[in-house]
Amino acid sequence: GLKFTVAIDGPAAAGKGTISKAVAAHFGFAHLDTGLLYRAVGAKVLNGMDALKAAQTLEPVDLDSDDLRNPDVAQAASRVAVNSDVRTALVAFQRQFAARVGGAVLDGRDIGTVICVDADVKLFVTASSSKRAQRRMDELNAKGMGLTFAAVLEDVEARDKRDSERATAPLKPADDAVMLDTTDLTADAAIARAISLVAVAR
Ligand code: C5P
């Protein structure tokens, strides 16, 4: 197949992961959750490593740990993500992934605006912050975490604020992104909408 890139951006827990995985599976594309890169760097910083050093030496195996899903790692990720040198260190890996033959879906905050400005399809996935916190709480508590709604909402809103207000690659829709508000959509409905947008572009 040919090179085909789908960029999926949006705030925390809007449904990017669910949609990205389903689009990738449907079309046989590879999927990269770019948040994992920042989470892996954040986790290393929590373990005492320098952020830039962590970004420059990141390896695929670093993306495998289950602990990367924890809210404290998410916060650390959003703090290291403000650092433009850290971001620069992670660009080549993401662009190489996007350039692979056979198609790729990348999800994150700056895929449509910075990493893959020429993506074939750009989606910006949103939902109300309370819906997003509810979904993220259900997801994490299904893994036995026992988090309160208030704690998850605080995490989501703090990250959105930091991600949107930073100087480098802030969270915002690309001018040519299609907006997808999942507040009142089931996962299946959101997936169907995303698949049809990709199908049209293909
Ligand atoms: O997507 P996820 O919530 O796992 O991302 C964790 C954090 O990593 C985000 O809050 C954001 O600060 C950062 N991030 C980013 N750019 C990306 C992906 C994630 O700045 N492309």
Describe the protein.
This protein has 202 residues and is of the alpha/beta class. The chain has helices spanning 16-27, 35-46, 51-56, 71-80, 84-89, 91-98, 111-115, 129-141, 149-165, 187-201, and strands at residues 5-9, 30-33, 104-108, 121-126, 178-181. A 5-stranded parallel sheet has the order 2-3-1-4-5, with helices on both faces. Helix 2 packs across helix 4 (71-80). The relative contact order is 0.23. The model has no long low-confidence stretch (mean pLDDT 96). The protein binds cytidine-5'-monophosphate.
Provide key terms for this protein.
ATP binding; 202 residues; 51% helix; alpha/beta; 10 helices; binds cytidine-5'-monophosphate
Round the mean pLDDT to the nearest integer and report it: 96
The order of strands across the largest sheet is 2-3-1-4-5
For the report, how would you describe the main beta sheet? 5 strands, parallel
The hetero molecules present are: cytidine-5'-monophosphate
Residue share in helix = 40-55%
Short description:
With 202 residues, this protein is an alpha/beta fold.
Q: What is the strand and helix layout of this fold?
A:
Layout: E1 5-9, H1 16-27, E2 30-33, H2 35-46, H3 51-56, H4 71-80, H5 84-89, H6 91-98, E3 104-108, H7 111-115, E4 121-126, H8 129-141, H9 149-165, E5 178-181, H10 187-201
Parallel strand pairs: 1-3, 1-4, 2-3, 4-5
Helix pairs in contact: 1-10, 2-4, 4-9, 8-9
Cytidine-5'-monophosphate binds next to helix 2, helix 4 and helix 9.
EC number: 2.7.4.25
Domain Cytidylate kinase: 6-198
Subcellular location: Cytoplasm
